[in-house]
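[09:14] KT: can someone run the structure on this one? pasting the chain below
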Amino acid sequence: MVAGTGIGAPKGTPPAIVEKLNREINSGLTNLNIKARLTELTTVPLVLTPEQFGSHLAAEIERWGKVVKFSGAKPN
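[09:31] RB: done, structure tokens below
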């Protein structure tokens, strides 16, 4: 199974706040203790810029949207 987790901020959040959040979160993800624990949990963190995360998210939405359409799944 593949799952993803990300952190977002409301539209209009000042760029300085987004950059600080990104820097601090990425710092945590590269911390050796945290990285080791994530590895134990079979999690592979992606250390990305906000722009890279946006591109990654858009690509995933497009990819999985095609899968859902092909499957014929409908919301209840």
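[09:33] KT: thanks! Residues 15-71 form one domain.
[09:34] RB: yep, looked fine to me
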